[in-house]
Amino acid sequence: MRRIEIPGPGGLSFFGIRDRNLRALEANLGLTLASRGDVLLVAGPAAKVDLLARAFGQLAGLRDEVGNRYRMADVHAAIRILEQDPSASLREYFVEAILSPRPGKIVRPRSFGQLEYIRQLRAKDLVLAIGPAGTGKTWLAMAMAVEALRNHQVRRIVLTRPAVEAGEKLGFLPGDLIDKVDPYLRPLYDALHDMMDAEKAQRLRERGVIEIAPIAFMRGRTLNRAFIILDEAQNTTSEQMKMFLTRMGNGTRAVVTGDITQNDLPRGQVSGLVECLDVIGHLGGVGLVRLDDSDVVRHRLVQDIVRAYAVSERARRQKRRRADA
What is the dihedral of CA 80, 85, 91, 93, to 10 degrees? Predict the structure, then answer.
């Protein structure tokens, strides 16, 4: 049994009602945990116990810079980071790489891939972010966009995505054109409202400071001093992708996000995202980040789902290759 001191206040605020947070931590690490005030009693495999101790030890060392109170999500993030890179410094994740889209709102990278993503967002005017669902591609880009607007680095935010049908026809949806495309843009609204009060977001939309529209609405425009996010870019055509990339004006920053394994384009049509990786991915001014299942930060089951589908897809490809041989 090993004793580990909790950084900051322990008790109910940290361990959760009926130690619910501890039970989640036990399930994640395969350990047996018990709380005694501000001390954890830990039993289990030595490597896992050491991992937990290193996570809490580094968090404790950051008290003066980030405050005394930690959420359990921060602990899970610290564990994930140290699993990926045992030599990692949590200071880089919890202090140096944070985003602040609004007062009191702190966004931190929760994996090595997300840290690299934030580095690229800060360093490059155009960033391509590729990865599966749940890796924070859109969410982190939105945090960076709102922070840039708040700090007067840009004058407006433009959010767009292709309105590609995935099993339903736009014509079957009620309302006019705006009503029909609105469901396709809803994930962008959700990410925006995570970073900004909904009423303020609505006021900024009415003033044209924030614009959310299908990619078809981008044609013929030049966007200066803007932060542009193209979401679900795997569903763009080659023509749409080229059109989007050439909208960038002076002082503009752009982020293209997508998952090349979830293409809803008609069979045989080349994805604009896949093509642009080959065409411009090597350019010096373009940042390219490839996230994977180790960067999934949604419900822990999502990571298992992503991995299971990846295994299934590899098996199908191998079966097709054997059939073609």
Answer: -50
* Alpha carbon distance 138, 315 (integer Å): 29
How far apart CA 51 and CA 47 sit, in angstroms, is 6
Separation between Cα atoms, residue 93 and residue 115, nearest integer Å = 7
Q: Are 233 and 205 in contact (CB under 8 A)?
A: no
The strand ranges marked E within the chain are 2-5, 32-36, 39-43, 99-102, 105-107, 126-130, 156-161, 210-214, 226-230, 253-258, 286-290
Q: What pLDDT does 275 receive? A: 94
**Residue matched to tokens 């708040």:** 150
97-143 pLDDT, tens per residue? 889 998 888 888 989 999 999 999 999 999 999 999 889 999 999 99
Give the count of alpha carbons within 13 A of 73, CB side only: 9
Q: Are strands 253-258 and 286-290 parallel, antiparallel or unpaired?
A: unpaired
In the sheet that holds 39-43, the strands lie side by side as 2-5, 39-43, 32-36
pLDDT class for 297, splitting at 50, 70, 90? confident
